[in-house]
Design goal:
The chain has 392 residues and is α+β, with helices and mostly antiparallel strands. It has eight helices and 19 strands. It has a nine-stranded mixed beta sheet. It has a six-stranded antiparallel β-barrel with strand order 5-6-7-10-9-8.
Length: 392
């Protein structure tokens, strides 16, 4: 398939700049994939689409204040940094603007929330072929410990803020209410609509609520620049699936319950780990298989030999790194329903949603683009702070 096949027109005013006044007051577009029928509901109506025995699976990764500002220690030129992956203590890959000025050896003095230079410096030690910079931080035992003081919420570029003070509300609203382990540089946005009250109401319906962790990085929001979808290589992201979550999912699948995946990141964890080699609980992380997907048969790019035996159940607990890339056609093995937001044109997220709308075929692209056209006509709000879609 061509990347251009996943393009669509979106009026700029439909790109949500702020979240709904209440998390669960967002709108909910329901797409019934067997019939193609649409429904227009409110997010809190999600309780009408789950039933006893189902499992709701959410990504509990916490967004870190990954956007930093600094000045060239020698020239005073300004830099903006977005941390994207930690490779070691005080060692991170980052996206820098302006990237051309960030040569190897450049020292950048970080600015505090008042725009004043402090003791922390970032040294550019390497640049890769994509223009990303590897930074080594000095002047602090661990840069993670001061991100709350120095960093800003890493909002995507289509959400505009005038100054640092505008980010105050985003520190709460660009974070799910169930976020726990820190590590994401973008929010798992489908989870932003949930409140504790709504989650408890869902539990009272006899639905099990459990969590996976996928730390959102470049793999989620990097644009597809290749003409062919299959030629795109997605970046790795780290994940973890606990014994309890694996047991809950396997019990549901064995007894006829559905797995309702909240967000494309959750789907990627589930479809990565299903039926893969694993180590027993407590034995530590293993090198996870990585897949380039897009057909009913997944082609392994890397499988760690001797990583363990195959699971008797569909899902095994474990942790690792994934670069699974899901696009039509794809046969989903675990997720039975998908709750997601409205995604950018030509994005890997839109491709995954299109695959889910018609598993095992390419018909989902037209179905989803038709639904997006209806959402535009009905003035739904798009992207991170926008409304939600349930595909069931």
């Amino acid at each position: 398939m061509r990347t251009a096949d996943f393009d669509f027109e979106l009026p700029p005013e439909l790109i949500a700049q702020t979240p709904a006044a209440q998390r669960d007051a967002s709108r909910l577009f329901v797409l019934h994939r067997n019939s193609g029928r649409f429904e227009h509901r409110t997010f809190r109506d999600l309780v009408d689409y789950v039933r006893p025995g189902d499992v709701l699976v959410l990504n509990d990764s916490r967004v870190i204040p990954a956007r930093l500002h600094g000045v060239n220690a020698q020239t005073g030129g300004q830099f903006e940094m977005l941390l994207v992956e930690e490779t070691g203590l005080n060692d991170w890959w980052a996206m820098l603007r302006p990237g051309k000025r960030a040569r190897e050896g450049t020292r950048i003095t970080l600015l505090d929330s008042e725009g004043m230079p402090g003791p922390v410096q970032a040294i550019v030690v390497e640049k890769n072929s994509e223009g990303h910079c590897r930074l080594r931080f000095e002047g602090v035992p661990n840069i993670r410990d001061v991100l709350d003081e120095l960093g800003e919420v890493p909002l995507p570029p289509y959400i505009e803020r005038n100054d640092a003070g505008d980010y105050t509300d985003d520190r709460e609203r660009y974070q799910t209410v169930f976020a726990r382990p820190p590590g994401s540089v973008a929010a798992p946005t489908a989870g932003l609509h949930f409140t504790e009250l709504l989650l408890n109401t869902i539990r009272q319906r006899g639905v099990q609520v459990c969590f996976v962790t996928l730390h959102v990085g470049l793999g989620t929001f990097a644009p597809v620049k290749t003409e062919s979808v299959a030629a795109h290589v997605i970046h790795e992201e780290s994940y973890q699936l606990s014994d309890q979550t694996a047991e809950t999912i396997n019990r549901a699948k064995a007894t006829g319950g559905r797995v309702v995946a909240v967000g494309t990141t959750t789907v990627r964890v589930l479809e990565t780990i299903v039926g893969q080699p694993f180590q027993a609980a407590g034995s530590g992380p293993f090198p996870a298989p990585r897949f380039k997907s897009g057909s009913s048969q997944e082609d392994p790019l890397l499988v760690a030999p001797g990583a363990g035996s195959f699971a008797a159940d569909p899902v095994a607990p474990g942790s690792g790194r994934t670069r699974i890339f899901i696009y039509p056609p794809f046969d989903f093995k675990i997720a039975d329903a998908l709750l997601t937001n409205f995604h950018l044109p030509r994005s890997t997220l839109l491709m995954l949603v299109s695959a889910f709308a018609a598993p095992g075929s390419t018909a989902g692209r037209e179905r989803v683009l038709s639904a997006y056209g209806e959402a535009v006509r009905q003035r739904y709000r798009f992207f991170s702070y926008g409304d939600a879609m349930l595909i069931t």
